[in-house]
Amino acid sequence: MLVSLHSHSGEFCRHASGSLEEVVESAIAKGFKVYGLSEHVHRFDMRDLYPEEAGITLEDLSATFERFTMMSNHLKAKYADKIELLVGMETENIRQGDMQRTLDVLKHHSDRIDYLVGSVHHVNGIPIDFDRPTYERCLVSLAGDDIAARQRSLFEQYFDAQHEVIQQLQPEVIGHFDLCRLWDPQISFRDSPTVWHRIERNVKAAVSYGALFEVNAAAFRKGWTTAYPGPDILQLIMSLGGRLTLSDDSHGPHAVGLHYEDAIRYLRSYRVDNLWYLSMLAQSRSLGDQRQSLAVYKEITGSMTVDRSRREREASGNLQGKAMVEHRMQGLIIPVLRRRTPPHSDIRR
Q: How far apart (Å, rounded) are the C-alpha atoms in residues 62 and 41?
């Protein structure tokens, strides 16, 4: 079953290509069953714009994201009989206050956004994945007597920023966990106790609320021999009971499903048997509420089992309405309790 929970299009992301509808059509043509449209949240500071965004304003970025949420939901309805589309937002954590600003954006779009991809792309206010010279500029900006010390500082700050995303936003999907070693994939985080401690802390925090860790196939097109995360973190996630999902992180229709064969071979080499994904379940009509709820599924030899959704975890036993929803697949009937509240409404106010 083909699934991806992380993608972009040139219509709403200037370093991508193609329209959002072309991305959707490519996913349908390639046989995807669930596909996440997950554009970057707009930046909140002019200093954080990329070179290709020269000449535009923060208001322009906000309006572009607004259009993304509208178009993605339009396509979600238009192609509902061909593919299950989910609407996501990929996070940033660049400057102090960005977490609250992200919560404000999420509140504003609460009826249009299904889930979050929790990602970090900057350290010390500098993008670390734009190109090698920019990454090296980031290293130079950090304190340290030598390159090793500065790189350790970069990793520590990256994982601290990631921890803030995990703790404050509780994203359903953790994006490219170890993007910080993009330019040096051979680095072993275990060699630095302070870095590895942060990684363990972050994985445990994400596991505690049931997040999915994406196995991001885009690493292969960046020259890696594995997906993100690398083997050390992949094995840690598995050992701590973390849930893995698959994403192409496509930046255009040409990259939909790209390198999935490589990603699957990588997972099989570490005996990964189960992959998880997100899906929507319609609420009982008897409640008079037509909202849909996000749930987590696990693929096991062709069948699916369902886990408690985010809303149920937030409810902490205080479920409103207690709608009983049945999901049938290959003879399997799974009852799911549902709340009558929109996604993220409790913890993201």
A: 8
SS3 breakdown of the chain: % helix, strand, coil, rounded to 5? 40, 25, 40
Q: CB–CB of 26/33 below 8 Å?
A: no
Q: How much is the pTM?
A: 0.84
The pair of three-digit structure tokens given for residue 91, joined into one six-digit string: 């996070």
On whether the CB atoms of residues 281 and 304 are closer than 8 A, the answer is no
pLDDT digits (tens, 9 = 90+) for 2-20: 999 999 987 877 787 789 9
Look at residue 348 in the predicted model and tell me its pLDDT.
27
Q: What is the spatial distance between Cα 144 and Cα 150, in angstroms, rounded to a whole number?
A: 5
pLDDT digits (tens, 9 = 90+) for 156-208: 999 999 999 999 999 999 999 999 999 999 999 999 999 999 999 999 999 99
Give the model confidence (pLDDT) of 252-307 as tens digits: 899 999 999 999 999 999 999 889 999 985 332 222 333 356 777 776 433 333 34
Q: 281 pairs with which residues across the strands? A: 293
Ordered strands of the 292-300 beta sheet: 275-282, 292-300, 303-307
Spatial contact of 210 and 246, defined as CB atoms under 8 Å apart = no
The answer to whether 39 touches 68, Cβ cutoff 8 Å, is: yes
Q: Residue 8 CB: number of other CB atoms within 10 A?
A: 25
Domains of the chain: 2-123+163-309 (3.20.20.140)
Cβ atoms of 250 and 5 closer than 8 Å: no
Cα gap 305→297, rounded to integer Å: 6
Q: Where are the alpha helices (DSSP H) in 11-116?
A: 20-29, 58-78, 98-108
Q: Tell me the H-state helices in the chain.
A: 20-29, 58-78, 98-108, 132-141, 147-169, 193-208, 218-221, 231-239, 260-269, 310-315
Whole-angstrom distance, CA of residue 117 vs CA of residue 169 = 10
Residues 343, 267: Cα–Cα separation, whole Å:
31
Query: What are the pLDDT digits (tens) for 314-338?
Result: 444 432 322 222 222 222 222 222 2
